[in-house]
Please model this.
Amino acid sequence: MTGGDLITLLPLIVLTASPVVVMLAAAFWRSHALALTLTLVGLTATIVSLFIAAGRTSRQVTPLLSFDAYALFYIGLLTAATAGVAILSWNYLQRRHVHPEEYYMLLLTATLGGAVLVASTHFASFFLGLEILSVSLYALIVYPIYRTQFVEAAVKYLVLAGSTSAFLVFGMALVYAETGTMTVSGLAPLLRAGLGGADVVVVLGVVLLLVGVGFKLAVVPFHMWTPDVYQGAPAPVGAYVATVSKGAVFALLLRYFRPVSLDPGSSLFLVFAAVAIASMVAGNLLALRQDNVKRILAYSSIAHLGYLLVAFLATGERAAIAVTFYLVAYFATTLAAFGVVAALSPPERDAESLSDYRGLARRRRWTATAFTIALFSLAGMPLTMGFIGKFYLVTAGAGSALWALIIVLVLTSTVGLYYYTRVVVAMWVRQPDEGAEAMGAAVDGASGAVLAALTAFLIVFGVYPAPLIHLIERAVSSLL
Amino acid sequence: MAAVSLDHGLILAAILFVIGFVGLLTRRNLIVVLACIEIMLNAAGLAFVVAGARWGRADGQVMFLFVLAMAAAEVAVGLALAIRFRQSLGRLDVDDADEMKG
Amino acid sequence: MLQLLWIIPALPAAGFVVLALLNRHLGRRAAAVIGAGSVGLSAVVALLVAVSFIASPPPGDVYRQVLWTWFDTGGLAPQIAFYLDAMSVIFVVVITFVGFLIHLYSTEFMERDEGYTRFFMYMNLFVASMLVLVLADNLLLLYLGWEGVGLCSYLLISFWQRDLQNVYAGRKAFIVTRIGDTALIIGLFLLFTQLHTLAIQPLMAGAAKEWPVGSGFAVAAAALLLGGAVGKSAQLPLQTWLPDAMAGPTPVSALIHAATMVTAGVYLIARTNVLFTLAPDVRLAVAIVGTVTLLYACFCALAQHDIKRVLAYSTMSQIGYMFLALGVAGWSAAIFHFMTHAFFKALLFLAAGAVIESLGGEHDIFKMGGLRRKLPTAFWAFIVGAASLAAMPLVTSGFYSKDLIIETSLGSVDGNAWLWLGALVGSLLTSIYAFRLVFVVFFGDQQTPVTRRPRWRMLLPLWVLSALSLIGGFVWLPEWMGSFHPLENFLGEALPPLKTVASSFAYTGVSALLTSLVAVVGVALATVWLVESRAALGDFAARPTPHALQEFWLNGWGFDWLYEHVFVIPVKWFARVARNDLVEPAFSGLAWLNVQAWRALSASQNGVLRVYIAVAGVGLVVILAFVVLR
Amino acid sequence: MILLWYILIPAVAAPLAWLLSLSRPQAARWVAVAGTSLPLALVTWQWVAQAGALRAAFAAHGPGVAGLVQGTWLADIHAAWISPLGISFFLAEDGLTLIMLVLTFAMGLLAVLASWRGIQERVGFFHFMILWTTAALAGVFLSLDLFLFYFFFEMMLIPMYFVIALWGHEKRVYAAIKFFIFTQASGLLMLIAILALYFIHGRATGTYTFDFTQLLGTQMPSATAFLLMLGFFAAFAVKLPAFPLHTWLPDAHTEAPTAGSVILAGVLIKIGAYGMIRFMVPLFPQAVYDFRTVGMVLAVIGIIYGAVMAYAQRDLKRLVAYTSVSHMGFVLLGIFAWNTLALQGVVLQIVCHALSTGALFILVGTLQDRVHTRDMTKMGGLWAVAPRMGGTAMFFALASLGLPGLGNFVAEFLILVGTWQVSKWAAVLGAVGLVFATVYALWMMQRAFQGEETHALRFNDLVPRETGMYAALIAALVVLGFYPQPLIATVRQTVTSVQQITAGSPLSPKPTSAVQVGIPADRAPAAAAVADGTTTDGGR
Amino acid sequence: MTALFYIAAAVAVLATVLVITRSNLVHALLYLVVSLFAVAVVFFTLGAPFVAALEVIVYAGAIMMLFVFAVMLLNVSADSPLRVPTSAWIGPLVLVAVLLAELIYGIGLSDHALRAVEVGPQQVGDALFGPYVLGVELASMLLLAALIGARHIASQPESPAIEDPRLSGEEPDAPADAEGAT
Model:
């Protein structure tokens, strides 16, 4: 640790300071607006500090963290997403009259966890980042407290996260026991062979470790919690779980495995492939006739992680770009989708039933349009980033000749069309039920602005993605 | 000091770990479930200490410390949740938490 | 003058367009003037052209007029071009002239029907199409006319479309003829692919040059063209539509289903005679088809009750004669018979129309009777027509043309005794049924009151056609009557001459005598049976075997039944079975499977935390097992 | 630059229509009229203006000019787009494109006009979707970058989906999703094939590009080529649609609103044919040749099966929809025959089918607006009620059964005669299909319009707006029936160049001798015809 | 020392089994304490006295205190015996047996003796504030997050937006409905 390292660490420091600042401020003056403002200031400062950190040549700070371009890009992404979530939460919390200050603190600590994850080059930071994220999320999921659903979701998440963390730690221990190293660079030679030449105990360790990762990513067979937590959690938190939590862990996975290319015949490759296929199939099928919009989004996220795994398994720089681009697209899309849910939710409950969306297009034209664009982006239709992203994934897969995976991807995403369009149909075609309460309070300006920005983002980079791709190219090049 | 085989240390950790896992699968009382998670985490920490002992370095113990911190955090939030759970559902039976499904 | 050629079809076509566009805005009178007038003008132009053609024959006795190139791609460049030679002259004149007479007749006949304009619209279109057919320079243009007349036939048969029976009949006519057309168009594919052109003359020249007699291509091409001809001309086995086609207004039957359209097959075969010369087997088939059809139709005609159906079968039979002539290479004879047949058959139909109209739409001959005094013009016209049909010797045109065919069937190098015998028997039967009709309709007791009498517009055509039926035959007298055959000379410019067996029995007066005798005997028999001993005939017909036979003939030998069961019912059955698409279950099954999978997976998400953990545990164990044991 | 306008005008008009409609719904219609007729005028102007250029290009290089290879486009745009992946914004236009564009905008305009009265709900959004579709369709026909093509190919699904789902009939949601899923699934298979091609080409040459002109002639094992060809075929066969992938079509066409049906039948399904001619066969001639028998069998089954199914229907619109299956069978047949005659026939069929079937759909639409049913058992005798409508229906029924004198006949004749030179049986069975076409066309007339009017239906005959539309379509079909040459001349270059591309494969057998046979056969009568034409022209 | 390891291990296993089988919650927690003590002994035998001490202080001391505190707070002895029926143990046991077998199979394949060096508090401290210094900071943030979270969860919401009947009608002494008290 040198003074220079502190500059490199600046984003993390700012991010760490932010919740403390919010907390201290709240201690003196409880104000929702202040908390949100400070949060946004903190997040903005973090983003600004990224550029400062980017000027540094030495990026590795202790064996634990590396602030290379990849990490900085992802921290920026996570931070921006968090800012989006924070703004979307404003109205949601306002309507529910709960103390909102802790919410923002937890949001910030969770983001800190995510930032640590994406910069992690060591099991210790991996584990700690994951736990900071998880522990913050427990409280965030249950945050408004007053409904059983929140508690139920939080308990499920906590128990599963705790136990899978135990698996993760146990796996780390086994790997360490056998190899004596806990750093990415130390593990690379082992992983490069897809664990082919490693001792069985290392293989065991890696698999156990992947349980923890798989849980966070919600891939089959560690996916069962997803719908319940998405449904139970407040909509903005759902957005957060779907984006920041998953994105950070996937970025970490990419960092650990990207420098190596899994040998397509190796056990690990086959395990990933099987998990990917199972996730794509199960995710899409589970959502097929689902009537709860949040659960639909949950199941679809399972499928999307399956898609991501396809590109993850592909080799070369293109695969890393594909994953990253897809994650960016997925972040924006999911935020927009959950944002709509959050914005439309009345105080009593979240607007999550499909019937809540019936005839939405007639009542709230632009909200419905934004949601539709988000859904089409999830479905991978052109003019949205989802299209380019999915195209990139398939390209990456095709580049590594993962034909079986691609074909599964293609076929299952076709199934996916069915449930996305169900929501679209509900909004545009159906009439509201007789006597049903008209869901769709006026969308507040802040949420509206975020939704508009996200939609514009989706479309602009869906039509002209080249600048973003160049940026991502630069970011992932530091991985290789 | 006489050497304990690495395998035996790890096997002990594994045994404790799976016992915790059995508890997780069979016990419905939230407090016990949390205790089982503690058992598993403890076992994992044990594995780290064993591993550290193999290499004769402090890393294992450091990791144990982090696990310890995490366990503490987990338990703190977990027990707070248990209080809420009891308030919301009247009991501590995790099986009661099946409102959301499908 | 010949440059006016394109005007001939253009006039009725223009009439059609005008009528179509102004449909609703035209009065009946205007429609009649435009409808009949365009064809009349066309007839005048046709006469001018014909006179000009005969008076100052163009070089090579052929006049060709190119209007524009239809399209041009891949070596296929058919033109919209007309080709006038002796044969087309005859066809054009007959079509326009008879056509005009029938239009004139229709102006009165149809005057109380709704859709008066529509009627003339269709009729004009028909005349235009028919003219295109016979003037076409290439087979594709011919096909255009060919389909055009088929369409008009459909439209006019089902003209009274409020009655679905008529629509059904029209549909049947179109579909059955289209089956033949399909053969024709396949023939076109073949001809183009082999000879790289569709223009008729180069095609014939090319065929003669490239294909030896009896070559597979020639046989195939000729057979396919024959298929087309059979359909359009209602020959076996595609004859079933013609009797039903009588559902249309009578002038339509006269024009389309007697005088012109149905003879298109004859025209086609005569036009492509080179191909048929190259394919002797197919030509024999033509002769056999003709003979069999003529006999078949005679028997059917004997049993019919409906005056128009009798005439329809007689048309079929007479076209059978033409086919017979074509089959034995008597090209000119066939054309000759076409001409006389056009006159007398149009006459018969128009007379029948007058009768039907007078009786308020009655078609059943057994409800007519005794009309010779009430409708003298119709009666005499009918007598003339029937006599011509029955080939009463010397005075009727039908005699000369039919006698020529009977002669040719024996005297041609391709003829034989069987064909000749068939033709003779047919002739006997023809005169029997022709006069059966006369006796039943015009003699005996009147059964239905006459409500309306034809006026001049209906009568004039009857007179003119009667005259033509009587004198039309004198353009080609048999050898033993002298050597007067201008028609043969004229047609000789366009059609190859007949090769005859030297000093055949056929060309002696004996043969002609036999033909005459047969006709007279037929009339005599009809007289004896129907006038002298009608009761006995009735008793005979009531016996089981004759009754069954009569039923059999009445129903056209059960062809309709056969086709219904072999073709129509299976297709209908399939259509019913497949209505919801046979492939659909495959896709809906896939959807169903997906839903079942959703059900199963969805049930696993039961909300119980311990189950979730267990699933993760099982997954982990399976993965571990795979990784460890591999 | 003009090419960009073709996409931009409707694309800009689309949101404009929506936004304007928020205050004045009627404004959307006029914006839509402008948004389709403007590019229509533009492309027509270009057609007229460039006719000489097309002819010159053809004449200069003679038959077999490889316009595509030599880059002799009428116009093109080549701009960087997603360069990291070798994706460019590559638009180009040749004769075929020109025709497809004319068709696209004409059908778009027709769709707008046909919805003038029928669409009263969410007018602005409707026209937004129609214009969007038009823009995407224009993009599809203009793209020569395979990714761009796929982009537009997918893009037009969304508005079409909305059009069906929002303004359709009873089972609209089902039909829309079915359409969506079928097209999307097959489109993704094509995407896989495109990507495989991309990588195969990239590995071989080091240039990773989606530029179609560069991907042409990529060498690969024949088994691979066959699989990739199947990927393309899947997408285009679904679009076309070819038996047995056609089952989305009857549902989609039946349930779509009139405008949707018009665009679907008029342009959208033609993408299948266009894609096969432009991309599939030139890319994989050998594989297509290997697949030819199967393709032809499917085509023939499609022709006859579609016709029989049309006959079996009670729903008038469904009947018309199935006729498309039958007609597109001819198109498929012609493509697999792959010679000048057949291909010219295919293009002509594309145009004529659009006109005749489009008109039939509009007719059914107007009928449904008036009678409120499409069930033919509840109709009958309508001729007596609305004779003009009856006559119009008769005309288009005749067009659909391939009556000579109308464009459809020329098209089908060319296809079949071209097919005959490749497979006699396919041609014969295709011709038999014409008999079945007669059956359903006349059956439709009989059930809906003929017979006694028994359901006491009273409604207005055609109004002038409708009469005008039909008159234009009728005139077009008649002109195409008697003088299709302008159209044939326009696509001649494309047709010869795509054949030239495949010249080395057994698909275009004996390239040298074909030219030898082709030149005299093609040139000589053509020259004669031109000579004759001028004389007669002068004479008259 | 080796013997001590095995004895302590046996105690730990036994105590842990008792934790998950005891129906009385307090008993179970006490057995857990025993187990943790035994593990502390194991740590000691492995040459890690620092963590052994921490195990006793933090785990057995602080964390278990929390549990007991919670039990008291909730007065949960009434509903402590919530357990699945014996038959439901079969599945988990089989599953876990397979898991254990796999783990042991994997671990058993390697054969390394542990280094008999003691890693004392000094070394651990050096490591903690050397390479792992950021880890320590992060652990503090982890605890901060847990602190904020736990405090928020456990605190009574001041003005719940919606009156949840189950929430307002708090019933600490509600008789356990289903399985009754023992």
The longest helix of chain C spans residues 164-195. Strands of chain C lie at 63-69, 79-84. Chain C touches chain A at residues 594-595, 597-598, 601-602, 604-605, 607, 609, 611-613, 615-616, 618-620, 623-624, 626-628, 630 (CB under 8 Å).
